[in-house]
């Protein structure tokens, strides 16, 4: 596979021949929330990228402390009835922390996802952050919109997803963000260049605009 091409979105595939980025382990995260600032977690998906290979997603849907607001349901489609019998996030805390044990976090509009995780995991040490929104604006100029859905449509990352996945659900959005990140890596050409564009760090929420 040549640089600049991305494999289909499914588990266990090499995404780029750019080699130095493979020295890090990444977790691509997407959260669906419940409207507070930062939002309360309703759904979380994590997609590992290890050795340049996008792995299978892991997803948790949880019962938030407050009823899901109508406007939030209108976005992600998760209703109060869907989560009424589910455990709260605390029951998944250790599993989530284990999955987040990586060199870097990847997310689209990352300050939202990182803020939610920090709210839920106050003792969590956030690693290096790569924000695909910021990266796409710098490395893929000329798009009319840099919303995740618009980039998915423009670049065709929705093809090959498992049946039943749709936008604004955590698993779908984490998988397509992983594909987008792979494409951005190929355009950057090296990990150092990617870092120069991405910014962010251990104690810094990346600037998005």
Overview of the structural elements:
With 209 residues, the protein is of the alpha/beta class. Helices cover 34% and strands 16% of the residues. It has 8 helices and 7 strands; from the N terminus they run βββββαααβαβαααα. Strand 6, helix 4 (110-120) and strand 7 (128-131) form a beta-alpha-beta unit. Helix 5 runs parallel beside helix 7 and helix 6 crosses helix 7 (170-188). The longest helix is centred in the last third of the chain and has 19 residues, at 170-188. It starts with 12 loop residues before the first strand and ends in an 11-residue tail after the last helix.
SSE sequence, one letter per element: EEEEEHHHEHEHHHH
Distance between the termini: 33 Å
What portion of residues belong to β-strands?
A: 15-25%
User: Structural class per helix/strand content?
Assistant: alpha/beta
Kindly report the average pLDDT value: 83
Strand segment count: 7
Uncertain runs are 1-17, 200-209
Principal-axis shape:
globular
SS summary, helix count: 8
Helix coverage percent: 25-40%
Rg estimate, integer Å: 16 Å
The main sheet comes to: 7 strands, mixed
């Amino acid at each position: 596979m040549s640089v600049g091409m991305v494999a289909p979105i499914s588990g266990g595939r090499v995404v780029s021949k750019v080699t130095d980025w493979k020295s890090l382990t990444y977790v691509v995260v997407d959260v669906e929330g419940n409207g507070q600032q930062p939002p309360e977690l309703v759904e979380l998906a994590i997609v590992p990228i290890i050795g340049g290979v996008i792995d299978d997603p892991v997803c948790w849907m949880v019962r938030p402390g407050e009823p899901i607001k109508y406007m939030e349901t209108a976005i992600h489609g998760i209703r109060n009835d869907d989560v009424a019998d589910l455990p709260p996030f605390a029951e998944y805390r250790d599993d989530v922390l284990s999955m987040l044990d990586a060199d870097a976090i990847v997310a689209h509009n990352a300050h939202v996802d990182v803020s939610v995780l920090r709210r839920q995991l106050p003792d969590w040490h956030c690693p290096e952050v790569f924000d695909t929104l910021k990266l796409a604006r710098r490395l893929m100029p000329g798009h009319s919109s840099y919303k995740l859905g618009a980039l998915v449509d423009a670049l065709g990352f929705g093809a090959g997803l498992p049946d039943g996945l749709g936008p604004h659900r955590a698993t779908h959005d984490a998988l397509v963000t992983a594909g987008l990140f792979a494409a951005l890596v190929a355009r950057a050409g090296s990990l150092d260049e990617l870092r120069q564009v991405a910014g962010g760090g251990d104690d810094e929420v990346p600037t998005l605009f």
